[in-house]
Amino acid sequence: MRKRRFSVEQIVAPLEHYDRPANLFVAGFIGSPSMNFLKGRLQGGRFISENGTSLPVASAPAASDGKPVIYGVRPEHFILDEANGLPAEVAVVEPTGSETQVFAKFGGADVVGVFRERVDAQPGQQIRVTPDPRLVRLFDEQTGKRL
């Protein structure tokens, strides 16, 4: 009989997994829909995605300029912001009753946003969103650990 090996990724209270995941695995495993991940680097206290989109971060680790990172934002942490948001090209709008899920291209990546507001957009149209920088999580691109 083969022995199975299991790995414990993080031992904390349940909501800690959601709020402060230790690594990419935990961040992607907890929550539905799961956390969105964008690849890029930190520069001047901001995140710059692979396609050059500049996104806010609440605080960048010291001496992190140029560091390759993964920018993690949960679907419900996007904010509809027609005045100051960045464009997201809508692929699918899925009303679920009290929420609306929007599948879109944002910052060069496919993302899912979950909004309490009604979203009146059709595939191919753009909405303007911004991630809440206080709730964004940064992960080291090589190790997957939260910074």
UniProtKB/TrEMBL annotation:
Keywords: Sugar transport, Transport. GO terms for cellular component: ATP-binding cassette (ABC) transporter complex, substrate-binding subunit-containing. Residues 84-134 form the Transport-associated OB type domain. Residues 31-78 form the MalK-like OB fold domain. One of its GO terms (molecular function) is ATP hydrolysis activity. It holds the Pfam family OB_MalK. SUPFAM superfamilies: MOP-like. Belongs to the ABC transporter superfamily. PANTHER family: BLL2173 PROTEIN, MALTODEXTRIN IMPORT ATP-BINDING PROTEIN MSMX. This is ATPase component of ABC-type sugar transporter.
